[in-house]
Write a structure and sequence with these properties.
4-stranded parallel β-sheet, 5 helices, Rossmann fold, about 10% strand, about 40% helix, 4 strands, alpha/beta
């Protein structure tokens, strides 16, 4: 098997976008990537629509929980190869120290939970758009020859994935 990579998706509340990304990275890559998620100010709850998306792609929903990014800066935590922020609030936060100097990028998405809860169709559409956008970016990441890229080239490609995917 090829080298396995740990990827941490960060969002302020760790209730939707980062949860979806964790599930997608882990399932789409068939074990090449292990997805994790966390937040600067975790809500403590995973949004039910994020759980449904994870379930629909075969991700074990019992692994999903809203948690602080502090868990991944502690001794004994899994060492991350990639850290990707998904919301502007997480991008602007002072992040903890990440051992191993992982490659980082910002793949911003609007918060699907910001849609009025009474507008179910609009909220479902917003969640689906996040899922599609994340799926596109994760698939592009999976196609990279990670083992052969220099660190700076990999960093540049991570940033390029986000901008390239906007036009897919």
């Amino acid at each position: 098997m090829d080298k396995q990579y740990n990827i941490l998706f960060l969002c302020n509340r760790n209730s939707a976008r980062s949860i979806i990304a964790e599930a997608l990275a882990s399932t789409l890559s068939h074990g090449r990537f292990i997805g994790f998620s966390a937040g600067a100010n975790p809500s403590g709850n995973v949004h039910p629509y994020a759980v449904e998306i994870a379930k629909s792609i075969g991700y074990p929903t019992q692994l999903l929980r809203s948690k602080s990014w502090d868990e991944f800066g502690r001794e004994g935590a899994p060492r991350m190869d990639f850290i990707i922020t998904l919301c502007d609030a997480a991008m602007g936060e002072d992040c903890p120290y990440w051992p191993g100097h992982p490659s980082t990028a910002h793949w911003g998405f609007p918060d699907p939970t910001s849609i009025e809860a009474s507008n179910v169709n609009a909220m479902l559409h917003a969640f689906k758009q996040v899922e599609i956008g994340l799926r596109n970016r994760i698939e592009l990441l999976m196609d990279l020859p990670i083992d052969t890229l220099e660190r700076l080239d990999l960093q540049e490609k991570l940033h390029t994935i986000h901008y390239r995917s906007k036009f897919l």
